[in-house]
Write a structure and sequence with these properties.
Number of strands: 5
Strand order of the largest sheet: 2-1-5-3-4
Order of helices and strands: EEHEEE
Number of helices: 1
Length: 66
């Protein structure tokens, strides 16, 4: 299935969970936010949240600084 991840078209297996997408992209999730179609998905829902064809994902890592 095709998804849009941070503005780029990418292909993933059908019925992938949000957690599976994050794992496949090898994104460190220690401090991170995820949104699907502009709706925040809570971290405790990532394993059960199944994405759909053409969903738009925004995966954000927070950067600290001073």
């Amino acid at each position: 299935m095709e998804l849009i991840v941070n503005g780029e078209n990418k292909n993933f297996p059908d019925n992938s969970t949000l957690q599976a997408i994050i794992d496949e992209l090898k994104i460190e999730e220690k401090v991170m936010a995820a949104a699907v179609n502009m709706e925040i998905v809570k971290k405790d829902e990532w394993n059960s949240y199944t994405v759909k064809e053409n969903d738009k994902l925004e995966l954000l890592q927070f950067v600290g600084g001073g």
